Amino acid sequence: MPLQNRVLPTGEIVVDPARGLFTGNRGIIHRPDGTLGTSRWSHKHWLVCTLTHPRGKYHGPMPDRGWSALFFLDEAVAVAAGHRPCHYCRRDAYRAWIAAWEAATGAAAERMAMDSALHRARVTRIRQQVRHQAEADDLPDGTFILSGTTPHVLLGDAMLPYAPTGYGPPQNRPSGQITVLTPAPSVGVLRGGYRPVLHDSAQI
After folding, report:
1. Is 73 within a domain?
2. Which positions ≥6 away from 2 have C-beta within 8 Å?
3. Domain count, the chain
4. What distance in Å separates the CA atoms of residue 51 and residue 24, rounded to the nearest whole number?
5. CA pair distance 183, 118, nearest whole angstrom
6. Roughly how many angstroms between the first and final C-alpha of the chain, as a whole number?
7. What pLDDT score was predicted for residue 52?
8. Which one has a higher pLDDT value, 129 or 68?
9. Strands of 101-180, DSSP E
10. Residue 30 lies in a domain
11. What average pLDDT does the segment 15-37 reach?
């Protein structure tokens, strides 16, 4: 039976059989039986990790004394949900993220301060996603927006509707003020040159 471990761009964690391209770490947030309680994080270091451990280890999705493995369709979804590349299993991606963070902020990236800034911009104390408004024309590729009730990722002149199994056919990119799901600091990182890994269905 599928576990409640699939993360959506809206920040929700749902039950879905599709595994996705990446896993993620927010600490231990599951009960001994593998189900989730009310907690959605146990630390501020929300990571995007590879599906396989660099040393070949595998602890299972909901181990008794290990972190709760979450899963994302792709990296753009993970970034929208508030995660950033893991500095252990995705070192090249992490270095690229840091370079883009520094380009966006004009300051050296310090891990604790960066994760605290991300945490303030991604979720409230009552576990609600922080969303903001922006001009659609100013947003970089890989940003998630909300069009109607459906999350869409921006790519070129198009936006692609999200589903847990992949993206739907491209639609015209919107204009004007829109609701942005990707945290504001992460939008800055995308604008600074970071390119998240997209699912193969993201085609225009």
Report:
1. yes
2. 15, 16, 17
3. 1
4. 9
5. 7
6. 35
7. 82
8. 129
9. 132-135, 144-147, 150-155, 158-163, 166-167, 171-172, 177-180
10. yes
11. 89
- Residue 181: which of 58, 80, 100, 77 has the closest Cα? 80
Residue whose pair of structure tokens reads 């146990």 in the numeric block: 42
Give residue 103's domain range. 4-191
Which phi and psi angles does 162 have, rounded to 5°?
-90, 145
> Is 197 contained in some domain?
no
Residue 57 pLDDT: 61
Burial classification of residue 129, based on how many CB atoms lie within 10 Å of its CB (0-12 exposed, 13-18 middle, 19 or more buried): middle
Listed in order, strand segments (DSSP E) in the chain are 4-7, 13-15, 22-25, 47-49, 70-72, 84-85, 132-135, 144-147, 150-155, 158-163, 166-167, 171-172, 177-180
Task: Tell me, yes or no, whether 127 lies in a domain.
Answer: yes
pTM exceeding the 0.90 threshold for the entire prediction: yes
Q: What residues have CB less than 8 Å from 47, skipping those under 6 apart? A: 24, 25, 26, 83, 84, 85, 86
Give the tens place of pLDDT for each residue, 85-142.
Answer: 999 999 999 999 999 999 999 988 899 999 999 999 999 989 999 999 999 999 999 9
| CA separation for the pair 187, 62 (Å, rounded) | 31
